[in-house]
Amino acid sequence: MNEKFAVQILPYEKPIVDMVLIQLVYMEENLASTNKNEMLYIAHRMEVERIRYLLVSYHQSAVGGELQFATDFYKSVESHFHQVAVRHMPRSCQNDENIRKVVPNLDSHVFVRAINVAAGSVHMFKYRDVEPLVLEEIVELI
C-alpha cells in the first residue's frame, strides 16, 4: 500500500516477493493433490488467488505503473518545456540536464497510520518527515 501513496518510488522488496512466490508454488502443489469438492480446497484456492492478486497489484504499483507513468510524464514535460521555454534560450543552454531534472516533492503532506507505536492512530505529516519511518515499515501510508 505504501507504494501506491508514496511521493517517490520506494525500494523494491525482492526477497519478500521471492519468498511469497515460493510459498505460492508450494500451496498450488498441495492443492493439486486435494479433493476439489472439499470446502478446505475452496478456501485454499481463494487464498491462492488473493495472494496472486496482491502480487500483481504490488508489481503494477511498484514497477509497471511507475515506469509507464514516468515515461509518459517525461515526454509530456519535455515537450511542454521545450515549447514554452527552451526554444527561447540561447543554444548553449538548451541541452543542460540540470534544468530538466525532476525531483519528488518530499514536502507534500501524506496520511500515515502507526503500526508499532500507538497502533492504528492516524496522522498527517510532510512526507520528508516520515520517509525513514515508511522505509522501515514503522508506519504505513494511507
UniProtKB/TrEMBL annotation:
The lineage of its organism: Eukaryota, Metazoa, Ecdysozoa, Arthropoda, Hexapoda. SUPFAM superfamilies: GINS helical bundle-like. This is Uncharacterized protein. Gene3D superfamilies: 1.20.58.1030. InterPro entries: GINS_bundle-like_dom_sf (IPR036224), GINS_Sld5 (IPR008591), SLD5_C (IPR031633). Coiled coil: none annotated.
